[in-house]
Design goal:
Largest sheet: 6 strands, antiparallel
Oligomer: single chain
Structural class: alpha+beta
Radius of gyration: 20 Å
CATH class of the largest domain: Alpha Beta
Distance between the termini: 19 Å
Order of helices and strands: EHEEEEEEHHHEHEEHEEEEHEHEEHH
Helix content: 25-40%
Strand content: 25-35%
CATH topology of the largest domain: D-amino Acid Aminotransferase, Chain A, domain 1
Length: 325
């Protein structure tokens, strides 16, 4: 009997358009002989099932069901394709846990932790994970530019603490430009992190639960045409994403080891994609994404393809792992 799969997409953040693209790729890629797939748009003002003619039907939030032609449809599993809040920060994970509905991403705690860059880096530091020097600011704090520069140096990155897809991030070269960058980050979140600039090779590596085991995918080297791997570089073709990465065997082994250690230390499941920059021949962690882009152009599907895993198999495995757990 075919399983009913809800593919949730959209979300409450600036990433919602990217999420809709990812969700539709999942919808198109799932084996229709094995699954009944349902697109579900999650927005602040509505949760709706969207059929192939773009007709919308409201989702009953009491049990996450939808009534179609007088028939109540419930779901065997939820495929989470929401980048940002509420799909990547733990809220949807907690909701589905309460309803006892399996879902494909990591658990509530892991999602909340990885979405908070400051908490993630602080949690991993005792486990030997190297990170850039950083300075924290909350909305309303006194901003001492001299102290910030003394701590992280210039150039530096000013980032929204809880945001993705490079929203709310700026590279700052001059102390006089710090305030503008800080104001930009506060548009995305009321907490920010200011980080030391690391000048080295940037790589991204996917780690997934695959057929019951932790699998590290081939590494991608990121070469941005812009000043850093910003929104344009990620989504508008202003970068080269080279898989497998043009790095030494030593760099590759170090990255694979650290990425797997992070995944297992945090008790992850589902997809993850970790970003690193090499400094002094060691990988320094930038962030961990738990609902990475899932389009044909996205990094994690590129890595899966290099490993011989098709989109259909990648998504099918995610569902099977969720159902098993």
């Amino acid at each position: 009997m075919k399983k009913n799969i809800a593919i949730i997409m959209g979300g409450y953040s600036s990433e919602y358009k990217i999420s809709l693209k990812s969700g539709n790729v999942v919808y198109d890629s799932l084996d229709k002989g094995k699954y009944n797939a349902y697109r579900v748009h999650i927005f602040k003002n509505k949760w709706v099932y969207v059929d192939d003619s773009d007709k919308e039907l409201s989702i009953d939030k009491n049990d996450f069901s939808v009534t179609i032609n007088s028939e109540k449809i419930t779901f065997d599993c939820v495929f989470n394709a929401i980048h940002g809040s509420p799909g990547e920060d733990g809220f949807m994970q907690a909701y589905f846990k309460l309803l006892v509905i399996p879902q494909t991403s990591c658990g509530m705690y892991q999602a909340a932790l990885t979405f908070n860059k400051r908490d993630l880096l602080a949690t991993l530091k005792p486990h030997g994970i190297k990170t850039a020097e950083s300075y924290y600011l909350n909305l309303g704090d006194t901003i001492d530019k001299n102290t910030i520069v003394a701590k992280v140096g210039l150039p530096c990155f000013v980032k929204a603490n809880k945001a993705g897809s490079s929203f709310g991030i700026s590279k700052v070269y001059k102390k006089e430009d710090l305030q503008t960058a800080i104001d930009n980050s506060f548009k995305e979140d009321n907490e920010i992190i200011i980080e030391q600039f690391l000048d080295g090779v940037e790589v991204s590596v996917g780690v997934i639960s695959f057929k019951g085991e932790t699998k590290v995918l081939p590494i991608t080297e990121i070469v941005s045409e812009n000043d850093f791997f910003d929104y344009q570089a990620k989504y508008e073709g202003k970068s080269q994403e080279i898989t497998p990465a043009r790095i030494s065997e030593d760099y590759e082994q170090k990255t694979r080891t650290v990425a797997k250690r992070i995944y297992e230390t945090l008790g992850m499941k589902g997809f993850s994609r970790s970003e690193f920059i090499f400094k002094n021949d060691e990988p320094y962690l930038l962030e961990v994404n738990t609902v990475p882009g899932l389009t044909n152009e996205s990094i994690l599907p590129q890595q899966a393809a290099e490993a011989g895993i098709s989109m259909m198999d990648l998504f099918d495995n995610a569902i099977q792992e969720a159902l098993k757990n």
